[in-house]
Design brief:
It is a single chain. The strands form four sheets. This protein has a nine-stranded mixed sheet, sandwiched between helices. The chain has a six-stranded mixed sheet with strand order 16-17-21-18-19-20. Strands 1-2-5-6 form a four-stranded parallel sheet. The chain has three domains: about 70 residues, MurE/MurF, N-terminal domain (Udp-n-acetylmuramoylalanyl-d-glutamate--2,6- Diaminopimelate Ligase, Chain: A, domain 1, 3-Layer(aba) Sandwich); about 210 residues, 3-Layer(aba) Sandwich (UDP-N-acetylmuramoyl-L-alanine:D-glutamate ligase); about 130 residues, Mur ligase, C-terminal domain (Protein-Tyrosine Phosphatase, Chain A, Alpha-Beta Complex), CATH 3.90.190. With about 425 residues, it is α/β, with parallel strands linked by helices. It has 16 helices and 21 strands. The radius of gyration is 23 Å and the shape is globular.
Length: about 425
């Protein structure tokens, strides 16, 4: 089946499902394959549960004309998203970066939705499947789309740009994330810089944090033409400064000589630049300062990213959706600057660091034990436990062991940073804090 024919089916049934547990009536079910599953085997089940059609790539499962046969279901999904994107005349904002992608995406969405009907990437659907699915959610009612693009190796952002075709974009930062796949920090610059390459080729507009030497150098090296800078300097399109971090960020920002101030519901000095990015994009799309500030001040994180949680005993900074050396370092720096009589660190392993894993975990251990600012420091995971020779901290190999310890040794009246990679399942220990 060619893409034009498949697109006609999509227009009549514009809801896409890839999971038979989440079938909605009248949807198009795409039978994708994975390492441990072949969704062609579930196609009939999808039809039984209400799917209008099932897109399959195995003729053995083509029971009747409700089973649409293609050569490759994943490629068909991706090609369908490209075809759909080409029909759209709306602005699409693409963003990537080592840290802060999702928080910044949500901030931008909160700001722009004060004026426009927006669509933004849901959760972490930011890969070769998630981006096409997000594009295919764009309807005639959508006025602006915000597409998050994640990557753990080079050429991936370039591929995601082919699906989303952003005409605006920016990189949050360059940090030590997915070192294994990218082959080091220089490899990360190349991989993330593929967004700059696409925007240059298509004459798109790029937002750059001028306070970031890496991003500024990348922009200059690529000779980007349509660039808007934001940062602390007064020579920027937008300038701002951090007023307060106690624990929520309050910032001042200046645009065309006028001064504005906004209180956020985000903690972490590293979110200052994310807030500035959202303000800059709001200004570019013609929002008033009041609309922009409303979007910033009303956004409350609910996804374990820079999220403040108050329990009966403690105040917890929940930042365990993901972790890498860069985000871990700034999170530790941030809690050092917050006011509290007792500060506790609970830090878990960082994944996808490859050969750098041992060294990067040791750097974090040394950083935390450099001074006596913390009442207690706890590390969990096999990477951190490899450094238990260092005095002044507790080390556990497994999250379950940490949970048992916390049940018997209560932490009270403390500000607690809980951070680690998602696979460490740190959410399971929150109930004991």
């Amino acid at each position: 089946m060619n893409i034009n024919t498949l697109y006609q089916y999509y227009l009549k049934n514009p809801v896409i499902c890839t999971d038979t547990r989440k079938i909605t009536d009248g949807c198009l079910f795409f039978a994708l394959k994975g390492e441990n599953f072949n969704a062609n085997t579930f196609a009939a089940n999808a039809i039984e549960h209400g799917a209008a059609f099932a897109v399959i790539d195995d003729v053995d499962y083509q029971v009747n004309d409700r089973f649409l046969l293609v050569d490759d279901t994943l490629k068909a999904l991706q090609d369908l998203s490209i075809h759909h994107r080409k029909q759209l005349q709306i602005p699409v904002i693409g963003l990537t970066g080592s840290n802060g992608k999702t928080t910044t995406k949500e901030l931008i969405n909160s700001v722009l939705s004060q004026k426009f009907k927006t669509l933004a990437t849901k959760g972490n659907l930011n890969n070769h499947i998630g981006v096409p699915l997000t594009i295919l959610e764009i309807t005639s009612q959508t006025e602006i789309a915000i597409i998050e693009m994640g990557a753990n190796h080079q050429k991936e952002i370039a591929q995601l740009c082919q699906y989303s075709m952003p005409n605006y974009g920016f990189i949050t930062n360059i940090g030590k994330a997915h070192l294994e796949g990218f082959g080091g920090v220089e490899g990360i610059k190349i991989g993330k810089g593929e967004l700059y390459d696409y925007l240059k080729e298509t004459n798109g507009t790029t937002f750059i944090n001028k306070d970031s030497e890496a991003l500024t150098e990348m922009g200059v090296a690529k000779n980007l033409q349509n660039t808007l800078f934001y940062g602390k300097g007064f020579d920027n399109f937008l300038s701002g400064k951090l007023v307060k971090n106690d624990p929520f960020l309050e910032i001042e920002w200046i645009y065309k000589g006028d001064l504005y101030q906004v209180q956020s519901q985000l903690t972490g000095i590293y979110n200052f630049e994310n807030i500035l990015a959202a303000i800059a994009i709001g200004l570019q799309f013609g929002l008033t300062p009041n609309q922009i500030n409303d979007g910033i001040s009303t956004y409350s994180p609910q996804n374990n990213r820079s999220q403040i949680l108050k329990t009966k005993s403690n105040t917890i900074i929940c930042d365990y959706y993901n972790a890498n050396p860069s985000s871990m370092t700034v999170a530790i720096d941030n809690i050092l600057q917050l006011k509290a009589d007792s500060k506790v660190l609970i830090l878990a392993d960082m994944f996808e660091l490859g050969e750098e894993a041992f060294l990067e975990h040791e750097i974090i251990v040394k950083q935390t034990l450099l001074n006596n600012a913390f009442s207690k420091v706890i590390f969990v995971g096999v990477y951190f436990k490899a450094h238990e020779k260092h005095q002044g901290a507790l080390f556990f190999a497994k999250t379950e062991e940490l949970a048992n310890y916390l049940q018997k040794n209560k932490i009270e009246n403390s500000l607690v940073l809980v951070k680690g990679s998602r696979g460490m399942k740190l959410e399971s220990v929150i109930e004991y804090l």
